[in-house]
Amino acid sequence: MEINSNTKLYGLIGHPVEHSLSPLIHNYAFKSLNLNCVYTVFDVLPEKLEDAVNGVKSLGIKGVNVTVPHKEKIIKYLDVVSEEALKIGAVNTVVNEEGILKGYNTDVYGFIDSLTEVGKKIEGRKAVVLGAGGASKAVCVALALKGIDSIIIANRSVERAKDLSEYIKKEFKIQCDYCSINEVKELPEIDILVNTTSVGMYPNTEDSPADEKVVLKAKFVYDLIYNPFETALLKHAKKNGIKYSNGLSMLVNQANYSFKLWTGGFFDKNLVYRYLKEGIT
Ligand code: ATR
């Protein structure tokens, strides 16, 4: 489809943004559905966020995704924010409806779908979540919504783990404990181990947020990282025959919910997976 005066513009607001896969996903999806839309990235420094949001409005940009470090701070500049996004305290998708900016969070349902894809039952299970930042919050909310029995949040900064665990307990009335990330090795058994920290991400691909002994206690390991596809943590799981999954599915699923908010319909997930796997490897 040729870019012309009817082309609708979408994008990603973040800093940094140059390694994002979102333009690949959305532009491929627009093309495959013959939609006259384009998705690009906007590298926005923290002090320019308000200007950028005003720019979205004044230029008539139809929608944006929001990533680190703006997900929380953007809320105060939006006109309407969904209940979920308010609950998580973070927005990752903005829809510009004729000048009214509406904020949503599609990370929670993106994560739920990615667990469903690998046939993971969540009800009644015990999860250990590594990390206590924004991504961890979305994962914990998703697990709680899907009926997890209990969560242990393990983080380098114990104070942050404590705050998040108190929030989850209060909001969802489930058992949610916390510990230092170094204490995970003392836990007896783990049904689902989720890494939400940036440890192991390119270029530090040798690093792992938990060692092999910890992974051995897990029945399933999910790493939110997708660059590399197989982190050191996932290699531990693979080596020991433990089921695992990387963050590509959450990325694609959350993108699909954003796509639906913008266009009214979903894209074909399997086509997009195939395209990404061929394109990246
Ligand atoms: P996000 O929105 O992606 O979750 P974030 O809020 O910056 O980003 O959180 C990053 C997470 O990775 C945090 O849990 C952080 O631990 P701290 O809260 O102690 O900072 C974790 N993290 C980042 N680098 C780490 C490292 N080298 N070792 C252990 N944890 C790390």
UniProtKB/TrEMBL annotation:
Keyword vocabulary terms for this entry: Amino-acid biosynthesis, Aromatic amino acid biosynthesis, NADP, Oxidoreductase
Organism annotation: Thermoanaerobacter pseudethanolicus (strain ATCC 33223 / 39E) (Clostridium thermohydrosulfuricum)
Catalyzed chemical reaction(s): shikimate + NAD(+) = 3-dehydroshikimate + NADH + H(+); L-quinate + NAD(+) = 3-dehydroquinate + NADH + H(+); shikimate + NADP(+) = 3-dehydroshikimate + NADPH + H(+)
NCBIfam families xref list: aroE (TIGR00507), PRK00258.2-2 (NF001314), PRK00258.3-3 (NF001319)
Shikimate dehydrogenase substrate binding N-terminal domain residues: 12-94
EC number: 1.1.1.25
Quaternary structure annotation from Swiss-Prot or TrEMBL: Homodimer.
Biological pathway: Metabolic intermediate biosynthesis; chorismate biosynthesis; chorismate from D-erythrose 4-phosphate and phosphoenolpyruvate: step 4/7; Aromatic compound metabolism; 3,4-dihydroxybenzoate biosynthesis; 3-dehydroquinate from D-quinate (NAD(+) route)
Superkingdom as given in the UniProt entry: Bacteria
Residue sites binding NADP(+) per the record: 83, 131-135, 224, 247
Catalytic residues, chain numbering: 71 (proton acceptor)
Gene Ontology molecular function terms on file: NADP binding; quinate 3-dehydrogenase (NAD+) activity; shikimate 3-dehydrogenase (NAD+) activity; shikimate 3-dehydrogenase (NADP+) activity
Amino acids binding shikimate: 20-22, 67, 92, 107, 226, 254
Family classification: Belongs to the shikimate dehydrogenase family.
Name of the protein this chain belongs to: Shikimate dehydrogenase (NADP(+))
InterPro entries linked to this entry: Aminoacid_DH-like_N_sf, NAD(P)-bd_dom_sf, Shikimate_DH, Shikimate_DH-bd_N, Shikimate_DH_fam, Shikm_DH/Glu-tRNA_Rdtase
Domain Quinate/shikimate 5-dehydrogenase/glutamyl-tRNA reductase: 120-198
HAMAP family linked: Shikimate_DH_AroE
Function: Involved in the biosynthesis of the chorismate, which leads to the biosynthesis of aromatic amino acids. Catalyzes the reversible NADPH linked reduction of 3-dehydroshikimate (DHSA) to yield shikimate (SA).
GO biological process, one term: shikimate metabolic process
